[in-house]
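Recap quiz, item 2
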Amino acid sequence: MKINTWFGVLDLGSNGELLTSELFPKTVRELALRSLSLKDSRQNLPPEGFDLATAAIECGFADSFSEYYSLLHEVTLESVKIQVSEALTPDQRVIQAVEALDDINETTNSLSERLFEWYGGYFPESGLIGEALAAFIVKYGSRENISPEDPIYLRARDSMGARLEAADEVLLKGFAESVCSLYERRKHVEAYIESSMETLAPNLTMLAGPMLGARLISIAGSLEKLASFPSSTIQVIGANKALFKHLRARAPSPKHGVIYSHPIINTSPWWVRGKVARALAAKLSLAARIDFYSAKKDPSLAGKLEEKVRKLRAENPRPPQKRQEGRAKPKKKRRK
Amino acid sequence: MPEIRLLSEGIFELTKDKKQLSTLSLDPGKVVYGEKLISVEGSEYRTWDPRRSKLGAMVLKKFDIPFRKDSKVLYLGASSGTTVSHVSDIVSEGAVYSVEFAPRSMRDFIGLASRRKNIFPILADAGKPDSYAHIVEPVDVIFQDVAQPNQAEIAARNASRFLKKDGYLLLSIKARSIDTAASPREIFKEEVKKLEQAFEPGFEILTARELLPYHEDHLGVLAKLKE
Ligand SMILES: C[S@@+](CC[C@H](N)C(=O)[O-])C[C@H]1O[C@@H](n2cnc3c(N)ncnc32)[C@H](O)[C@@H]1O
């Protein structure tokens, strides 16, 4: 009987005695790679209770137990290092980027607000916010530096704001520079997500757009998980708290997942949004599956979705008045 | 000078200001997860927080801990290695085959595993023991802390493949990973029954105790294979 071990293939007799052996080269990397392929093949396993360490010495692979264990230590370590580095798949990289983007947005918003408050003391009439304000401060600092050609020159000249002292100006300019670079960073990360999504999940990207698509993968945890979700789950992911409650306590399922930010739902009249969301979720689910299993783009998907949504809208041109009344009745009953 | 009392092979109770569970460090000078290092007459002990380790709680709940210094151990659910580090201290001349299936946890575990010669890390699903049968030898103890709904099945599969006839299973059962609604008592009863009957020859339960006050809704189980 032939059996596979991490150090070689052994041939055992009918009483379990070692007949012959074909030993693997004694290099850590080689042994680790072979061990990983055995992990997946799971064929010709040693019989239950088989003493690997003793067999390794018997067949001459190791001279002593201490050599056996020290090699096995190196080999298992090398194997898990390989596995861990392979676990950083393209979808996991996109997920890191999506989460980084969320952190950047949060930080940028709060620093931008701070800058607005702070600079407001010196030039409240600027009318600028966010990135434009930060860029303005980096360029001019004090409103006294604004040139007469600039359209807001007059506003600056007549401002009721306080005079910006040199020391404060240095501080504010530096702060504004940081805010600007955060906006810059955000664009980089977005561009990264867009280009990665195009190769990672072309169909999902085509239907959902790169940002929404990446967000769906991020919330699901991986493209594989997203592809395994039924479309009813895709419809609600992102409605976080409500979703977990739904799963745990079987509370009514929440309607508004992240896919509600999709323009195809946004621009639909309110009474068909639920139906459109269901249709979109079904197509996204299909797209995620195609992406996970083949990653080949199927341009017909977009047309099919549009067609389906056009039909839904045509079938439901007006708000469903009767159903509204019907729904109101049981409510009254409950109140009694 | 702290007073040292031996609780079980390789497991100590140090008393300085208060009583502290500890193990003798195999890797002196290194802190693994924020535990304290205490030197006594040239030996370094690492304190062991029972609230962060089901095994630590089992020691304090007076389980008969079956580890010897040369024990071979199969540890299922290694996570980042908090408890594995103490097992590695205890079986200083043995082996700890440490199975974990989350790559992220394994990443944190690798540093520890690389510094301790008796740890053999395995990134695999403990529900598929065949996937590491080419590496793991017969063991004296299986320790399992996976917090999964099918934990009885996982224990059975690993025991029938790897546990020596006279070996032991130490298991932590987390009620809420099995059913969030049912009462923990009911769940524990069911799980114990599964351990006794789910496979041939089945486990004989030696001790089953809740791990309160260290872990809520957790049952610790010590078992061996039926004759
Ligand atoms: C409660 S934690 C273990 C904590 C650890 N025993 C300690 O005390 O330091 C459970 C671990 O089991 C892992 N796990 C769950 N199911 C598993 C399986 N089928 N195979 C391997 N590991 C699993 C989880 O990824 C998690 O890291």
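Chain B is about 25% helix and 35% strand.
Residues 170 and 222 of chain B are 5 Å apart (CA to CA).
End of item.
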